[in-house]
């Protein structure tokens, strides 16, 4: 059984080699994330390796540029990591020198001035807590309130009960978008988004064949969630910072609510953060982690993501295999109990959704083995995917970047092919694909959907029922 939910792996030294990249893809990775909060020097060589493997395996792969946004981070430290003891004093200052056992750069002077004694600083998605005990020149003196505190370069910082408006892209984000375009990235992920304003600004800067992922990680985003979902292409539930902002115990219900909303509005959703965190150091996961992945799939997540597990973990390939095996097992159960997991889509007099919903209903016929969707822009592929048909989805686009973009969507097998010149040409292309697909046998039925007229359609408006071999 082939999994339909997709896996994102974060790039890092643990999988930079061509062998590790290829093995991770064969184990189930569908997309790679570049974290622009860290040093991306030399990343072009890694992207080149990915595109080389893409050709070798004849698989389209998405690359995601995850922007830093206004999310606060500490500076670099002089070793791989430093251990801070409980009750140890530690300084955060604006000194740009590399950090050490006693201090680290916190390059936000205006924020440092506003912080008060007693305020708490949470590091690395809230794992470690430091309490401010004294204001000093150009910095603050804190005491570590966590046991087993291990700090690495550029880790995230969260300030409890401290709000900072973020309605414009930073200079770094704009520069990183330019880099992402040159790298050939297919997605831009916006960090610490609070409303739809950043989405509009980003649309003007990216190519038309690139998509936007909005990371939901604060109360403001939840308050404005409807406008964000309608404006973006994909939602990511970034549970680390979200948990810090709303409380860990509220994250499960927010996750379920967001997945339901995205399903109703036909928006793919990614569940991220610490899904297999223990496998950074261990070769086997905890039962709780397996349950976490399965829960996301049961709820209807399109994609699940690995972060440090593949970037710096000791067992990146084993981690991907574990996630893939869990997805397959969960999806098998869902297929066997399909009536319990049918998603509800809000059509709202949208004729495109009505057409695609008809495609989904036709696909329940046991003789139907696949849906072939011609999708120049990727919109048809996304709609078909969010309807969750029971059969294989094959999407065809003449634009290789659209093919790469759509490869992130649930259940989609993306093929880059020339554009159909007309009805007959569409059928000829479809027949070639059907002939090559070993899972489609003679007399099996295939549903073909597209927008007419070819190359100029503004919506999905055609369905063809075709018998293989005829």
Walkthrough of the structure:
With 470 residues, the protein is an alpha/beta fold. The protein has 3 domains: 6-70 and 167-327, TIM Barrel (Alpha-Beta Barrel); 72-159, M1 Pyruvate Kinase, Domain 3 (Beta Barrel); 351-467, Pyruvate kinase, C-terminal domain (Pyruvate Kinase, Chain: A, domain 1), CATH 3.40.1380.20. The chain has 16 helices and 22 strands. It is elongated. The model has no long low-confidence stretch (mean pLDDT 92).
Set out the fold topology.
Elements: E1 6-10, H1 18-27, E2 31-35, H2 43-57, E3 62-66, E4 72-73, E5 82-84, E6 89-93, E7 103-105, H3 109-114, E8 120-123, E9 128-136, E10 139-144, E11 149-151, E12 156-159, H4 171-183, E13 187-190, H5 197-205, E14 211-216, H6 219-223, H7 225-231, E15 234-238, H8 239-246, H9 251-264, E16 269-272, H10 287-299, E17 303-306, H11 308-311, H12 316-336, H13 351-363, E18 368-374, H14 379-386, E19 392-397, H15 400-406, E20 412-416, H16 423-436, E21 445-450, E22 462-467
Parallel strand pairs: 1-2, 1-17, 2-3, 3-13, 6-7, 13-14, 14-15, 15-16, 16-17, 18-19, 18-21, 19-20
Antiparallel strand pairs: 4-12, 5-11, 6-10, 8-9, 8-12, 9-10, 21-22
Helix pairs in contact: 1-12, 10-12
Percent helix, as a range, is 25-40%
Question: What proportion strand?
Answer: 15-25%
CATH hierarchy: architecture of the largest domain: Alpha-Beta Barrel
Output the structural class.
Answer: alpha/beta
CATH class of the largest domain: Alpha Beta
List segments where confidence is low: pLDDT < 50 over at least 5 consecutive residues.
none
Strand order of the largest sheet: 1-2-3-13-14-15-16-17
Radius of gyration from the alpha-carbon trace, in angstroms: 23 Å
Q: What is the distance, rounded to the nearest whole angstrom, between the alpha carbons of the first and last residues?
A: 27 Å
The helix tally amounts to 16
- Biggest sheet record: 8 strands, parallel, barrel
What is the residue-averaged pLDDT?
Answer: 92
Number of strands: 22
CATH superfamily of the largest domain: Phosphoenolpyruvate-binding domains
Can you tell me the number of structural domains? 3
Rough outline: elongated
- CATH domain topology of the largest domain: TIM Barrel
